[in-house]
Amino acid sequence: MTPVYLGIDLGGSNITAALITSSGKLLRLEKIKTHSHEGVRKTIARVVDLARLVQVAASVPSRQVKAVGIGVPGVISCKSGVVRFSPNLPGWKNVPLAAKIKAALKKPIVMDNDANVAAYGEKWMGAGKKYNHVVVYTLGTGVGGGVIVDSKLLHGYSDGAGELGHMTILPEGPRCNCGNRGCLEALVSGTAIAREGRRAVKEHPKSALARLCEGRADLVTSKLVFQAASAGDVTAKNIVAQTGRFLGIAVANIINLLNPEAVIIGGGVSKAGEDLLKHVRREAGRRSMDDLGKGVKIVAAKLEDRAGVFGAARLAMQNSHYQAEGGRKRRHE
Ligand SMILES: [Zn+2]
């Protein structure tokens, strides 16, 4: 019987669960709303229900599922499986999530930060497949990321490594959610791009961007900025170029620090594709040390919102050497 692993991606808006084989074949994926406003207990119950549902939907018997991996947003302790705090999950403080899920599903469980898990998924089955040293940026409402060195996630002293969005790029730049000024997140996240778009609409009321939102700055989104840029609007193109430059500065720093083989850019903002990446490559090339920068592949992510479940399943697989889990005697299959 082929071993199967359950990857769960617990997000602020959605919970996704997927059954994946050790060769990376996706058997089934199910997604539901998180409804985190209903509180910690109900959210955990929804995770457990979804985990069971995906097994039923795939007709995979429970004994075939060897381990469970879960990615959670926020500050978490990987080893103890405790969610210390999560801005995306209101009310979550020191929640022993791994223990609760383990008790319900009776499987070994591995937990990690959602951005780490998504990075690990990209490394396993996405754009990072061929590489052992990979840095993954996820550009969405905020900016997250994961660092993979020697095919392993870098965790740091207290599991906090890889906060790629909070590298200072502009010392006196816009205020970031973390309290600092000029963080990468405050400059290149979808939120930041929309903010620049709103400013541009006010300053250039005749631009194509202003026409696209019918002059209503409050309707500008990052998507609209990219749309206007690809249609040739100069104002929007400037925003995209500036976003790419800021990201390129961050990437150059990372290249010099970690000497990766590949830097992968994912998340909603990365849908801008080459329009954005060409600026990132140019700036990173200019600023990184020659020997280090030259060979680095700066590419778009491939798995999109499935990266999380792939990474979670992979973590579960690699940490699932606990055949005697739960005191049951089961032979190796
Ligand atoms: Zn910050």
Element layout with pairings:
Blueprint: E1 4-10, E2 14-21, E3 26-33, H1 40-57, E4 65-72, E5 75-77, E6 82-85, E7 93-95, H2 97-105, E8 109-113, H3 114-125, E9 134-139, E10 143-149, E11 152-153, H4 185-188, H5 190-203, H6 208-212, H7 222-230, H8 234-258, E12 262-266, H9 274-287, H10 290-293, E13 297-300, H11 307-318
Parallel strand pairs: 1-4, 4-8, 9-12, 12-13
Antiparallel strand pairs: 1-2, 2-3, 5-6, 6-7, 9-10, 10-11
The protein binds zinc ion.
Task: Summarize the structure in short.
The chain is built from 11 helices and 13 strands. With 333 residues, the chain is an alpha/beta fold.
Fold and architecture overview:
With 333 residues, the protein is an alpha/beta fold. It has two domains: 4-119 and 307-327, ATPase, nucleotide binding domain (Nucleotidyltransferase, domain 5), CATH 3.30.420; 128-302, Nucleotidyltransferase, domain 5 (2-Layer Sandwich). It is built from eleven helices and 13 strands. The strands form three sheets. A five-stranded mixed sheet has the order 3-2-1-4-8. Strands 11-10-9-12-13 form a five-stranded mixed sheet, sandwiched between helices. The protein has a three-stranded antiparallel sheet with strand order 5-6-7. Strand 6 and strand 7 form a beta hairpin. The longest helix has 25 residues, at 234-258. It is globular, with a radius of gyration of 21 Å. The model is unreliable at 322-333 (pLDDT under 50). Zinc ion (ZN) binds at residues 166, 176, 178, 180, 183, 185.
